[in-house]
Design goal:
Strand order of the largest sheet: 5-4-3-6-7-8-9
Distance between the termini: 36 Å
Keywords: Glycosyltransferase, Transferase
Organism: Gossypium trilobum
Helix content: 25-40%
InterPro entries: Glyco_trans_28_C, GlycoTrans_28_N
Order of helices and strands: EEHEHEHEHEHEHEEHHEHEHEHEHE
Number of domains: 2
Protein name: Glycosyltransferase family 28 N-terminal domain-containing protein
CATH architecture of the largest domain: 3-Layer(aba) Sandwich
CATH topology of the largest domain: Rossmann fold
CATH superfamily of the largest domain: Glycogen Phosphorylase B
GO molecular function, one term: hexosyltransferase activity
Structural class: alpha/beta
Radius of gyration: 22 Å
Oligomer: single chain
Number of helices: 12
């Protein structure tokens, strides 16, 4: 059965921007220059009008810090590539970071920029050099954007998006931001004052932005890879190859996917640390895939005993396989994780 995906695009003669917004008289109404409806069948066919509309489009993404900021940008990029493979997409983020590995693994171009992180409390001595590092980062972003010449810059929050979007505004490039959470962070709250549009996941989030008329409630974007059908059997063999030699029915096997956040959610990790050994001992057909988070991995690895039915990883890049393999998901109740669990239809135990 075909599904309908709607893309809002504005097509002025020069240059071809992705989105257009004009200040309306009523709150949260949008002046749509062109509404392009694309019928997507199971074979992901798109109409020729969609291809012509976005032909030659260049979009830069400012995404980094955590998976909650990275993967919404990847999901948007996936859809743009689906509409027209000729679209040119560039991701900007920190070097030696989660995005520096996650973005190339999603097959998108990545360029690094100097990190600028606001330390809390704001009046900390560590923030004294913040203006210098911010100017340095904006200058680097300005140079990269000048070379790439995007029609649009998409920021998905976090301190990585701040210098990129500021550089785009200085260059006169259209900027849109996407907020995944119910309450926006400092970067998105400030950038919303100058952005052309603000895409939010929840109706209540609109009240958190000073210029509510710019907000569009559209839910959270989910990566295309999570929508692709992967068999449970193949996915389980991906994580536990020796299952192929295991005797007995595979129907009896139960896989628990534990997500300790992209950086690390201590309550989830500590809770599992206290019970994983007993669970595996009492249930011989249970398997655990445990994502500890990058910053918590070394500590957890030093405390967890090796077990053939336990897979410990700092971060899972093949999340489509992980969700497909799982019978139950145990996770921190992050906004993007909740959206992905809903999209995959997996039973879950969420920790607030």
């Amino acid at each position: 059965m075909a599904s309908t995906t709607q893309f809002l695009i504005s097509l002025p003669p020069k240059p071809p921007y992705l989105l257009s917004y004009s200040s309306p008289s009523k709150p949260r109404s949008i002046n749509i220059t062109c509404c392009l409806s694309i019928q997507q069948a199971r074979n992901d066919q798109t109409t020729s009008s969609g291809s012509k509309a976005l032909n030659g489009l260049r979009v830069a993404f400012a995404a980094g810090g955590t998976g909650g900021h990275i993967y919404p940008a990847v999901a948007i990029a996936d859809e743009l590539k689906l509409v027209n493979p000729t679209s040119e997409l560039l991701f900007l983020g920190r070097p030696n970071s989660m995005e520096s590995t996650a973005i190339p693994s999603a097959h998108f171009e990545f360029k690094s920029i100097p990190a600028v992180k606001l330390v809390r409390p704001f009046f900390s001595l560590r923030n004294l050099l913040l203006p210098y590092f911010l100017i340095k980062s904006i200058t680097k972003c300005f140079t990269l954007l000048s070379k790439f010449e995007p029609h649009l810059v998409v920021g998905t929050g976090g301190y990585v998006s701040f210098p990129v979007c500021l550089a785009a505004l200085l260059k006169g490039i259209k900027v849109v931001i996407q907020e995944q959470n119910s309450v926006p962070g400092i970067a998105n709250r400030f950038l919303s004052l100058f952005a052309d549009l603000v895409f939010v996941a929840f109706n209540s989030t609109v009240q958190s932005f000073p210029r509510k008329e710019k907000c569009v409630v559209c839910g959270n974007p989910v990566r295309l890879s999570l929508k692709n059908s992967v068999s449970k059997a193949v996915s389980r063999l991906h994580f536990f190859p020796w299952l192929e030699k295991m005797e007995g029915s595979s129907e009896e096997i139960k896989v628990i996917l534990v997500l300790g956040g992209s950086l690390g959610a201590n309550p989830v990790n500590i809770a599992l640390l206290n019970v994983y050994s007993q669970l595996l001992l009492e249930h011989e057909n249970w398997f655990i895939i445990w994502q500890t988070g990058v910053e918590s991995f070394n500590e957890m690895e030093s405390l967890v005993r090796s077990h053939p039915r336990l897979l410990l990883a700092p971060f899972l890049h093949s999340m489509n396989m992980a969700y497909a393999a799982a019978d139950l998901v145990v996770s921190r109740a992050g906004a993007m994780t909740c959206s992905e669990i809903l999209a995959t239809g997996k039973p879950s135990l969420l920790v607030d």
